[in-house]
Design goal:
heterodimer, A: Ribosomal Protein S5, domain 2, TIM Barrel, four-stranded mixed beta sheet, 15 helices, elongated, B: alpha/beta, Glutaconate Coenzyme A-transferase, eight-stranded mixed beta sheet, seven-stranded parallel beta sheet, globular
Chain lengths: 408, 518
């Protein structure tokens, strides 16, 4: 009995379509039509045959139409087609994690910009790290069409392992439960830093996801923590925001999705955003009360730079620390707009230096003028200085330069 | 096949199209002696005293010009993919039963695909020019009877001047002309700005035919082409398709990776200290080059710096630099959009140039070597900074060279390219076809990093401490090979079958193109 399936997209740059037909006899046959035939035809055929061997498939007709996809995409598409045919196969065809991706991220690292990339568009995934957002979100949810979702998981898994993320935080937005639970198998053992939980309405979803993550961490001996960011996208979620924020110690931020939120409350999304003002402020309060970062929604008009700038400044004024980006061109504007002002930086420098001075003298408490510096003030100053360094506003070694100046 | 390796280590056959081929000897090494060629002596007594050289049709003009088997016919490419004249010349020749013509355009475009049928039938023997798209493929598959000879704009001018190529009949499509043959590209529905690529053809061809769809009474001013060189004038309903001649809008790239390359390039020019009062640069009309101009413009405004001149191909964005007084002049070889045409027509500081002024190897100097920085593209660049601009990594001849080789003589030659396209690496071990020697290529800017040619110690020093991602070219290559799954297999070509030769600007052969196997 022949089994057949296909995965991937035809005539889509940097992608391929794989059609597989498992047969009773005839051996392994690969039919390839590729834009890069003369350069990589042999490599593609070799890799396809190797995968068939890996999955123990002896008789098969593999039909590959390739528009110049990268190896991690080719193997993802072939595996997706194989698993569609043979759903009980559990073995995974994966390469070692790219060594430069073996970095961890801190819990409270800046998350000014998080770039959404659809999980089924390899062309956009490959270069995402180049634009240096604070985080890249490989999306399995709304930006992937429902029939593509199961295939996108393989692309996202392979991308997490193989694509150079250039030091950014690797985030994945999973699907709503229950599909979202299955998504975790494809990301937790493969180097995800942070999981975004869409349409979060109560603490149960957060807990359920965290439990599954902990199981997978134990099973796969994953040492680093995996953080969570619940996304509030409804009236109920907004009302439960604080409960959601404190539901799990691995929560690092709380964010809001305005497209679904406005639909849920029966309002229209406007540029001015009156309809979501209260909810946004509520998310800020809930996050701050829980001691995690409040992050704002995306700004959806990629051509309107001034609108984006104004929107970020407004978000900053409400207490948000980050903004979602849907195009790499938005990242620089978001970073510039979240950048601390000159006065803020100067004050933070003074605080940091005063603290160093106090520590040198063996005192844990520092003062600026006659005022004591409280721990939250120190923390805020540190955050400002870190941001200023990231924005190239001050050099990373500003303290050395400062002391050099002192010597002159 | 007889042949030997040239100074760049590429094998060159002893003959191309039956004539001895001179192997490349190194940059600036080959200096032929003798006299330049000249056109036949004519007498004004043989021409109408009233100055009216209009003949009723292209066929009549070709007949009177003495069209016969084996002649060389030249055209210009200022109409780019909108040219309607070249096809009609060979359609007419076919009707006249003429065979074995050599077409010597300043460039061919996909709109000339119908000439392939004339090559199949023997009306046209072969094309001696940059071969684009379908003609490139025709040549690469070994179907063209003669061997293609690819020259840069400056090299073409040289080949006419030193007699390497003798033009029997030049047909010059002109957006505006008078009955005497004076012509320009500034006005008329087919306005293309200028006619510089046809200059040598008008001066050196045995017979010159001007074809226009906008005949005006004498005098046609300015006369970019001088009627004193012209034998016949023909009018025609449409000499071109205006939407394909100039686009009206030139599009800036929207690809984030290319924008990043453009930004790196502008920052490089700034941080290398090239961007200072009185500087000059040239960038093409590709999406990345246009974005580069916008980034550089912001830096120039911030630093209050003005250029002395910029080199065209002009676009709206260069015209804006001129109109906002961020440059004193545009020295322009071709206009790419309507703003370029308008500016050239109206602004005396927007000057038209020709391959003679800009690029000619037999000139007493040329402008290209006086430009502070030039931003160009390439299909492949190797670890020795050699570059390819005519073939793809599968060996197929698909692009023309334009003024690319000529521009390499700038003080700082920058190739701004993506590090890979789809799965195909752009930075490779050795280029498939050598078009530009690495000693002239100073900087390679990709989205993954910037490589400075180790020969340019001054640039390396100037960029020390920069936050730009400067790294050795080998490192970029290694990174791309990891992404693409190893180095690409070499192209599958028939080394016994040379389909085209790439000339260096001086007329020596720098490399050849082989037949691609089916």
């Amino acid at each position: 009995m022949a089994k057949e399936a296909q995965a991937g997209k035809k005539d889509t740059a940097s992608d391929c379509r794989v059609h597989i037909r498992i047969k009773e006899s005839g051996g392994i046959k690969v039919k390839l039509k590729s834009k890069v035939e003369s350069m990589y035809g042999e490599a593609i055929r070799k890799s396809a045959a190797e995968m068939m061997k890996f999955f123990g498939i002896k008789n098969v007709m593999l039909d590959i139409e390739d528009s110049g996809c990268l190896p991690f995409v080719l193997t993802a598409r072939i595996e997706a087609a194989v698993k569609k045919c043979l759903p009980k196969r559990k073995e995974e065809y994966i390469s070692p994690i790219f060594p430069q991706n073996l970095y961890r991220v801190e819990r409270d690292r800046p998350r000014r910009s998080r770039l959404y990339v659809p999980g089924d568009q390899p062309r956009l995934i490959t270069n995402a790290g180049l634009y240096k957002p604070d985080a890249i979100i490989l999306d399995l949810e709304d930006s992937v069409a429902p029939p593509e979702k199961e295939f996108a998981r393989y692309i996202v898994r392979n991308a997490l392992r193989d694509v150079d993320f250039s030091g950014t935080e690797r985030m994945v937005r999973i699907n709503q439960l229950p599909a979202g639970i299955e998504d975790l198998d494809f990301i937790v053992p493969h180097g995800v830093h942070t999981v975004l939980i869409p349409k979060c309405e109560d603490e149960d979803a957060v807990k359920e996801i965290d439990e599954r993550i902990q199981d997978l961490r134990t099973q796969h001996k994953i040492k680093n923590e995996i953080y969570l960011i619940p996304i509030i996208e409804s009236a109920l979620g907004t009302v439960n925001a604080y409960k959601i924020a404190v539901a799990c110690p691995n929560n690092v931020a709380l964010t809001i999705g305005l497209e679904d939120f406005t639909a849920d409350i029966g309002a229209e999304r406007t540029l001015e955003g009156k309809e979501s003002f209260l909810a946004r402020q509520h998310v800020v309060l809930a996050a701050r009360a829980a001691g995690i970062q409040p992050l704002d929604s995306v700004f959806s008009d990629v051509t309107d730079e001034e609108g984006l700038r104004a929107s970020v400044l407004e978000a900053k004024s409400l207490g948000f620390e980050g903004k979602g980006c849907i195009h790499p061109g938005q990242i620089r504007i978001v970073h510039e707009s979240f950048a601390p002002g000159r006065k803020e930086i100067e004050r933070a420098k003074k605080i940091s230096l005063a603290l160093d001075e106090a520590r040198k003298k063996g005192s844990g408490v520092a003062a600026l003028g006659s005022k004591m510096i409280d721990p939250p003030v120190v923390k805020r100053a540190e955050r400002i200085l870190k941001l200023a360094v990231q924005n190239n506003q001050i050099p990373a070694n500003w303290k050395e330069e400062h002391s050099d100046e002192g010597k002159k | 096949m007889k042949g030997k390796n040239n100074a760049a280590g590429r094998w060159i056959p002893a003959k191309i199209n039956g004539k001895p081929a001179i192997p490349f000897q190194g940059v600036g090494k080959y200096k032929p002696a003798g006299q330049k060629t000249s056109s036949p002596i004519v007498s004004c007594a043989d021409f109408p005293k009233d100055g009216n050289k209009v003949v009723p049709s292209l066929r009549k003009a070709l007949e009177r010009a003495g069209l016969r088997d084996g002649m060389t016919i030249s055209t210009h490419h200022h109409f780019r993919n909108g040219d309607k004249v070249a096809n009609q010349i060979f359609d007419t020749a076919a009707k006249m039963g003429i065979k074995n013509l050599r077409w010597f355009p300043s460039a061919s475009f996909p709109c000339h695909e119908s000439i392939i049928k004339h090559m199949d039938s023997g009306v046209v023997h072969y094309i001696e020019a940059s071969l684009n798209g379908p003609m490139g493929e025709y040549c690469s598959r070994g179907r063209m009877k003669g061997q293609g000879v690819l020259r840069s704009h400056g090299c073409r001018y040289r080949s006419i001047q030193d007699g390497e190529v003798h033009i029997d009949i030049a047909v010059i499509a002109a957006p505006t002309a008078d009955p005497f043959g004076n012509a320009n590209g500034l006005t008329g529905k087919s306005a293309c700005g200028l006619l510089g690529f046809a200059l040598a053809d008008s001066q050196y061809a045995d017979k010159v035919i001007v074809v226009t769809d906008n005949l005006i009474p004498f005098p046609c001013i300015p006369w970019q082409i001088q009627g004193n060189y012209v034998d016949y004038v023909v009018t025609m309903a449409d000499i071109g398709d205006p939407t394909q001649i100039v686009s009206g809008t030139t599009r800036i790239t929207r690809s984030p990776a290319r924008l990043l390359i453009a930004e790196y390039t502008a920052r490089f020019i700034k941080e290398a200290g090239i961007m200072k009062d009185g500087f000059s640069f040239q960038a093409g009309a590709g999406g990345t080059a246009l974005a580069f101009v916008l980034y550089l413009k912001e830096f120039m405004k911030e630093a209050n710096v003005k250029a002395r001149f910029v080199r065209g191909g002009s676009t709206k964005y260069l015209v804006e630099l001129l109109e906002e007084r961020l440059t004193d002049y545009i020295l322009d070889g071709q206009t790419f959009d309507l703003d370029g045409v308008r500016s050239m027509r109206e602004n005396p500081h927007h000057m038209n140039t020709s391959p003679f002024t800009s690029y000619n190897y037999h000139g007493k100097g040329n402008f290209a070597s006086m430009v502070d920085a030039v931003i160009l593209g390439a299909t492949e660049i190797d670890v020795n900074y050699n570059a390819n601009v005519v073939t793809h990594s599968d060996g197929m001849l698909l692009h023309g060279m334009g003024g690319w080789q000529d521009c390499l003589f700038s003080n700082c030659t920058i190739l701004a390219v993506p590090s890979f396209r789809d799965r195909i690496p752009v930075i490779v071990e050795s280029v498939t076809t050598l078009c530009g020697p690495g000693e002239l290529i100073d900087v390679v800017i990709t989205e993954k990093g910037i490589a400075i040619n180790p020969r340019r110690k001054d640039l390396l020093k100037a960029l020390k401490g920069s936050t730009l991602p400067i790294k050795p070219i080998e490192e970029i290559k290694k990174e791309i090979e990891r992404i693409c799954g190893g180095a690409p297999s070499p192209p599958k070509v028939d080394k016994e079958h040379v389909v085209a030769a790439i000339q260096w600007v001086d007329g020596t052969i720098i490399d050849v193109v082989y037949k691609v196997q089916e």
